[in-house]
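Lecture notes, unit on protein representations.

Consider one protein chain, 761 amino acids long.
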Amino acid sequence: MNISNPSKKPSNTCVTCRARKVRCDGNRDICNNCMRLGFTCSYDDSIPHHHPNTAVPGIMNHDGAAAAAAAHDALTIHAVASHPPRRRVRQACQSCHSRKAKCSGTMPKCDRCRNHGLECVYRPSKRSRLTTTPGGSSQHGRDSFMSDVASGMVGSGRDGYLSDQSRSASDHLESNGFGSLGHLPPPEESLVIHTFEKFFRHIHHIPLFSYLHQASLMQRYHSGSMDRPLLLSLIGITSTLTDLGHGARDYGNRCISMAELLILRDLDQPTVLKIQAMILIIKHRIFFRRFSDAFMLTGLVSRFAAALRLNHENPRLCFLAQESRRRLMWSLFMIDIGMAAGQVDFTLWATRPERIDLKLPCNERNFEYDLPEVTESLAPPPPRPDGSLVPLSDHVGFLALHIRIQWIRSRILAFTKGLVDAKPGEQDLEGVPRKCEELQRDLDDFEGRLPIPFKWNEANLRLRAYHPRLCVYLMTHLWWQQCHCDLYRFALMGRRESLSKEKIQSLDPAFVKYCQTRCFEHAKAMADMFALVLQFEKGVPVSDLDLTVLSYQCANTLYYTLATCGDEFDLSYASVTDMATSCLKVAKQSAPGPAAAAIAEVLDKLMETGWVRPVTASTATSPASGTPANHEAVAVDPMLQRDALQEADVTHQLYNPAIPQRNPPPQVEEQGHTMETDGPQGAPTAQMQAQTPVLPRDDEVMTSAHAGMMAGVTTLSNAFEGALDGSNFGMGGLEPFAMDSSSWYTGDWMDPDPSRHAGLM
């Protein structure tokens, strides 16, 4: 018996509703769904239709071109109807959701909340709160996300920030613990323009950020060729240093994380644009106390620069491109100086400036208006035969001077660190005054070549008080003062990078007194500069973390002088407190972010407790021997003790000599005795750990997986001994990160809760 297939029921659903998988009422000429949402409906008789099983009307006519055009239009309409545009946003804010109002889904505020002045908060999706899958699947998910989402986002234009491809990839992102990035909405046009205005008005004149050319950047953005990581990183750093509106800072943090992910996805394709974005990302990580991230990213971006030969001139490019590349490379050079702080093991460019075959940047006016000029090299020209100094070129601006004083500072720190960390018997104490005189001559020549309008005085400060370039003018002169404190600090007994008591006593007493005087005089000069800046209504300019660090350094030196030899300099507690108050005001106003707030808090505690003289063993270590460089008990700056800053908000204490504590460590013995340590004497951080009788470090709490790996390890030699150890920014493993080294990056101010960055890379 033949059973024929039942006839297929005719469809009563238009192509658009079928593609959207919604119920269609089948109304002609257009269904209600398509009419309500403004979609193209296949039932609309006003548009041509395509029926694949029937001939197109007019196809047999002599007018074949018209028939072909009609068929093409029908296919186009059918394709549009089967792929309707998205009308809903992925997520409504809580305010719109509670009132069942339409939400635009824009960040940092939706249109409705902006118009009504409401607080706009987006709730994280359920999938974004899921934990990542342990093991290889988690890593696979991350790799898959970085491959799919980044390609989808980079490939989209300015008007299509998140394409359908990247939307589906962002769903995969959510399931792998990166949900907050997967739903990163595109920045509004108004937010982008506001970011550009704020950046070039308040931030661009910070020396590290001066490599972007405003006209070129705006032209690139309006042409639709703006690099996505650079745009996101600009929003992130600008939202950190300025006020872009409610919710902009959180959105900027997510932009920074997304920009970092996009760059890390294409490590094999370095570009100048990526280096520009990475500089902004590194500084953002520093502001938010993620110093280990910044340290590692600096090495990566240095590789990028070397691969692109950014440290060499490229005469084939136009002047603007050459100057922008020069400034970018010098920004990386200054970051490297701040990272290493004179420690040779951590420097990439500071110890070999001869590898940077570039002229110093030109002045801002010539860069802004594309006026080519030739400037000086990093090393200044030698004096004339009669001993007079060569006048400073008119083409050299304060940005070039700032780079040069940073270079002098790196040489000073390299000298003092090498002196303190040298092995016993290798210290040339007799040549110390001669070397100090040589470096002092470089500082004097630097100041002597400055023209009258460039020198520090109240008149020149007033001329720049309301100008964005006040920042580089102020910072250059502050660093010149701080260089003197760095140069002579090794003779201040008890300070972090000082020589041992025995070594200091072997020096000429007149020279030691000279060092103490120079440190105090220049610290006092810095305090006077802070007080002068605070007199102006505009106050402290927007700056990076350098200004906060210098304010702390100044107050620390003043309190040390008061505690050790205050009578000799006619100092009183009231006068020092008054100067330290100016330092504290500058620290609180100079830079936002957790790192600056942590430094200001430590400075506030220093003003409460003053500089005390607890007796403990020196913690200076020699990288060559790994043993303490000073073997006798000396009076130690409270900055050299346990991290008081983290007492309130850290689950485990990390010792770092840069932060004061209110109470001396329990292990400190009576005066004249050194501490006993539980660990081996050869360990570089043995004495540091002994001063911190708190919870064990993270690396001492071995996980079950690590315990299983080490179960079979015996006391015999093993090639995997120490294989699970990581870098330690808080236990002396990275000495230059202490604040007494004038470095931005210290383990004391690392984020006490790294888990908050889970999913944000």
